[in-house]
Write a sequence for this structure.
């Protein structure tokens, strides 16, 4: 299928990536080649095959509802790029 | 006290864990991955974190933000990837062994290029807690070491159910080291003819098929079989891996940890700038590909289709293991490429994963071991694939091979004395 | 032309588990920002979710009570979007195989509302803007608190029906003990999908979705406002735009939220980190058998078995703790009507004076039952009993000890009462005279004097009888 720069824009927007204009066309061409190659899968008839998300018959893995003390807040916040003693900071995000 | 290297996508408490990406900045996890905790408890001493392809996306360790790793056998060549740093460190005898992760061949292929032994265990048998996810349904931690016996000893420590990883399970193997008898009498080795056709380097073909001869001489039975799904494995793998990656890597947004871009204007710009400048090209390519295959209108044609193909591939393996105990295939179509040769053509790079990715799709154990060298003196690897929980069988066959050969004992220049 | 309003609801209910859905952090409300957090619920790389067993159990219990089909093979999916209150940038939810489907709720007046589905998911964090630094603070304490989202079919036609449904839902879920349904703490939140169409039309109009409705009152007002807004638009020849609108409580109006780019494309796909859940028949049978009796059944039973008035039944079932308190008190021997009167009177008054929830009440059923027994047995008169109740309420004190220590036992010895009557008659000849000359009021005064003489501990009936005998 044709991967247009509009489509690249759309998936970039969803991915929160903004490619510079000069990279967009190259990316569109590469993706088109890759996606075109993936169309090989259409040669395989999979009618009636159940999509397999988990390869194992593993099921029903649970945790008991028992409280474990939370992590020290200073440790959780230590890696935040915008330092604050009690929260993660972002530019205005409340409507 | 055994010195080990740890791939830098495995979280080490208080120690910088970068995934070889700019976007993780100086991230020091406030927690330890289960795998490294188990090894430390068993007496391992980490000599450092090993370089890798950014977020384990690549086949040469050239996509690392911190620069490429060189192959100890030939410094102009790539060590393979994505666990290239781990494989090179073991080959160069910088550490006794290393742990890596394997999503589509990332332990086995660099092990092959660097002449060491590596195992990608059965999905779920080694905890993924603390392994920074690339593709959650395919990722698995495993050892890279000098021979199968060392791999067995490391897996004995690593395997087991972890309450913090819901996809982990009780190892139905264990005591692997004790089980290495070298006795392969009656073992049925399947050689899928579809894996030895066009596109495979002749020297690699000969060296890998010679493994069958060695095992046969020790009493194994070798049978040819067809594995008619080879052309579908790479597209199915890249669709599934990219889809999961696009979601797994969304959390890197410059808010909670890692690097944040400067000079942004508002929230949307913070996200866009941080992610655009923080991720390398190959990572961005896979995020976009994954976003595309999951997006409205394309999900069924690509993602859902790939999950169906995955079921077909799993079934092909099930059929193969009805008649065989193990499968023998190449690890890669050729030996280590020159640095700088691979990145220009992403699709070509993806296609070189053709022998390894199906093992991840089916959740099977796979092992890569040195089985020869090409005319340039570069190591060649052979892959053994087992059924679920077939680690014991896999390692024993490799051990049998290594009892009769010395490819695994060869070291690159500078490493011989150790 | 007459118009019909068509409404469907999406209700998010926080489950009353002790821990979060995928990690072992507490779900306690409040707490300093980011103190109920760990690497899992803050989305640190390499961490993994593990499902809380209780969440599944509560979701199934809710589904059973709402007459849903329970999905025997259920899975989680990822819903992907970027927002700072969602640290993983995806919400673990259920799209393809939700835990419950096709339910129905009887909301009274012969009306049934169909439940489309009920699924499990995780809550997001809280964002608070700080104008001083012009930055928003992200607090992840609420991240990962378990939710069920209950989606109805577009079966409502009026705000009253919506409120009746929510009342019913709240009653059901609190009786099950799966949620406290406190709107003020955000544990019950509602999005309203609304469209209008000419009465009698079989087609649905374009709908809008309203968010930020934090009380039943706000829901009712928002529905009225939005229905009128849409009708006016259509009458003016304009068209309704499918969009999300926010209810502004202060302005009493809805307004369109900034529309983010094009349509949302959440790229749902199966969550690879959580294995599927398969429910056995045994599991379902056990949960079904353990379902508690819900309020309507209790009301019917109390009316039928104990002849309790409808009003009392409604009052006592307004809160599951109160209902249980009532039943336990009756089980300890208190006559149902007496127990009901005490609870609707003294107990509710005491709670209200202390601004206390029934759940936090210190008084226990044995204490109230003992108090009622003393009154019934004549050992304590009612006025004294009320005083004892006040005295023992806060520490669930020992009724018998209190009565003994304060000498409050009712005087049931006729000789003692007779002596007191004698003293009062001697001291009040004028009143005796008045009574005999036909002034009934004087009798009341004399009774009061006798009660006073006995420090209020006498049985008023005995005083009446003995006084009348003596004056006859």
């Amino acid at each position: 299928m044709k991967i247009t720069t509009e489509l690249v824009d759309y998936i970039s927007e969803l991915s929160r990536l903004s490619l510079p204009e000069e990279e967009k066309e190259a990316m569109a061409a590469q993706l088109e080649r890759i996606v075109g190659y993936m169309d090989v899968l259409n040669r395989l008839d999979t009618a009636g095959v159940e999509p397999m998300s988990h390869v194992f018959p593993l099921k029903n893995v649970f945790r008991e509802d028992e409280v474990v003390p939370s992590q020290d807040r200073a440790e959780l916040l230590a890696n935040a790029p915008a330092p604050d003693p009690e929260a993660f900071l972002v530019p205005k995000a409340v409507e | 006290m055994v010195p080990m290297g740890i791939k830098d996508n495995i979280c080490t408490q208080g120690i910088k864990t970068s995934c070889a990406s700019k976007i993780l900045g100086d991230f020091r996890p406030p927690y330890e991955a289960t795998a490294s905790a188990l090894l430390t408890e068993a007496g391992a001493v980490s000599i450092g974190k090993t370089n890798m392809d950014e977020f384990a996306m690549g086949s040469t360790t050239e996509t690392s933000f911190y620069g490429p790793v060189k192959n100890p056998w030939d410094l102009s060549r790539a060590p393979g990837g994505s666990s290239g740093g781990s494989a090179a460190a073991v080959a160069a005898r910088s550490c006794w062994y290393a742990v890596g992760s394997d999503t589509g061949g990332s332990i086995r292929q660099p092990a092959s290029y660097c002449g060491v032994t590596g195992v990608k265990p059965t999905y779920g048998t080694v905890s993924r807690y603390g392994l920074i996810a690339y593709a959650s349904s395919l990722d698995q931690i495993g050892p890279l070491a000098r021979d199968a016996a060392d791999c067995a000893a490391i897996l004995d420590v690593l395997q087991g159910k972890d309450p913090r990883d819901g996809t982990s399970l009780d190892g139905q193997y264990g005591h692997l080291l004790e089980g290495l008898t070298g006795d392969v009498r009656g073992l049925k080795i399947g050689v899928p003819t579809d894996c030895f056709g066009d596109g495979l380097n002749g020297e690699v073909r000969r060296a890998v098929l010679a493994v069958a001869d060695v095992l046969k001489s020790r009493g194994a039975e070798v049978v040819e079989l067809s594995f008619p799904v080879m052309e579908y494995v790479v597209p199915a793998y890249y669709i599934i891996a990219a889809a999961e990656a696009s979601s797994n890597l969304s959390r890197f947004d410059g808010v909670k940890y890692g690097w944040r871009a400067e000079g942004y204007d508002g929230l949307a710009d913070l996200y866009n700038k941080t992610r655009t400048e923080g991720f390398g090209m190959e990572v961005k390519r896979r995020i976009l590909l994954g976003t595309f295959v999951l997006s409205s209108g394309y999900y069924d044609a690509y993602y859902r289709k790939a999950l169906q193909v995955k079921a077909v591939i799993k079934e092909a393996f099930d059929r193969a293991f009805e008649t065989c105990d193990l499968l023998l295939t190449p690890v890669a179509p050729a030996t280590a490429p020159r640095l700088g040769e691979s990145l220009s053509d992403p699709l070509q790079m993806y296609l070189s994963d053709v022998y390894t990715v199906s093992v991840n799709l089916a959740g099977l154990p796979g092992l890569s071991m040195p089985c020869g060298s090409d005319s340039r003196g570069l190591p060649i690897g052979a892959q053994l694939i087992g059924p679920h929980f077939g680690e014991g069988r896999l390692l024993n066959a490799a051990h049998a091979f290594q009892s009769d050969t010395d490819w695994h004992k060869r070291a690159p220049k500078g490493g011989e004395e150790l | 032309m007459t118009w019909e309003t068509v409404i469907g609801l999406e209700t998010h209910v926080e489950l009353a588990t002790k821990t979060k859905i995928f990690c072992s952090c507490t779900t306690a409300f409040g707490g300093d920002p980011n103190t109920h957090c760990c690497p899992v619920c803050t989305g640190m790389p390499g961490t993994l979710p593990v499902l809380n067993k209780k969440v599944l159990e509560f979701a199934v219990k809710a589904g059973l009570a709402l007459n849903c089909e329970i999905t025997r093979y259920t899975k989680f999916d990822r819903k992907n979007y970027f927002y700072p209150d969602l640290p993983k940038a995806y919400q673990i939810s259920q799209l393809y195989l939700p835990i419950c489907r096709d339910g129905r709720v009887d909301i009274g007046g012969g009306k049934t509302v169909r439940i489309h589905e009920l699924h499990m998911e995780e809550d997001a964090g809280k964002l608070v803007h700080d104008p001083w630094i012009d930055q928003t603070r992200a607090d992840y304490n609420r991240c990962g608190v378990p939710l069920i989202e209950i989606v109805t079919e577009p079966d409502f036609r009026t705000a009253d029906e919506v409120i009746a449904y929510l009342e019913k839902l709240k009653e059901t879920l609190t009786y099950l003990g799966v949620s406290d349904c406190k709107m003020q703490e955000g544990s019950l939140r509602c999005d309203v999908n609304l469209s209008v169409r000419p009465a009698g039309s079989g087609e649905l109009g374009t709908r809008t979705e309203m968010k930020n409705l934090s009380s039943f009152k706000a829901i009712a007002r928002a529905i009225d406002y939005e229905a009128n807004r849409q009708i006016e638009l259509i009458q003016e020849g304009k068209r309704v735009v499918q969009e999300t609108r926010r209810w502004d409580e202060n302005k009493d109006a809805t307004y369109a939220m900034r529309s983010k780019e094009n349509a949302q494309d959440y790229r749902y796909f199966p969550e690879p980190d959580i294995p599927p859940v398969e429910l056995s028949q045994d599991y379902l049978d056990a949960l079904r058998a353990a379902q508690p009796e819900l309020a309507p059944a209790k009301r019917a039973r109390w009316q039928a078995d104990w002849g309790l008035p409808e009003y009392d039944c409604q009052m006592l079932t307004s809160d599951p703790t109160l209902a249980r308190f009532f039943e336990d008190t009756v089980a300890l021997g208190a006559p149902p009507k007496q127990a009901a009167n005490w609870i609707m009177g003294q107990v509710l008054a005491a709670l209200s004076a202390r601004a206390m929830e029934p759940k936090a009440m210190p008084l226990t059923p044995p204490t109230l039952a003992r108090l009622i027994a003393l009154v019934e047995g004549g050992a304590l008169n009612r006025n004294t009993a009320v005083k004892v109740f006040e005295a023992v309420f806060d520490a669930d004190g020992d009724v018998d000890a209190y009565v003994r220590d304060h000498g409050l036992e009712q005087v049931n010895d006729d000789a003692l009462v007779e002596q007191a009557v004698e003293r009062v008659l001697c001291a009040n000849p004028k009143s005796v005279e008045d009574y005999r000359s036909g002034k009934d009021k004087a009798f009341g005064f004399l009774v009061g004097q006798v009660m006073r003489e006995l420090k209020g501990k006498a049985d008023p009936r005995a005083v009446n009888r003995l006084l009348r005998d003596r004056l006859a």
Remarks:
- The interface with chain C takes residues 10, 13-14, 16, 53-54, 56, 58-68, 70-71, 73, 76-77, 82, 84, 86-95 of chain A (CB under 8 Å).
- The radius of gyration of chain A is 23 Å.
- Residues 21-38 of chain A form the longest helix (18 residues).
- Helices of chain A lie at 5-15, 21-38, 73-77.
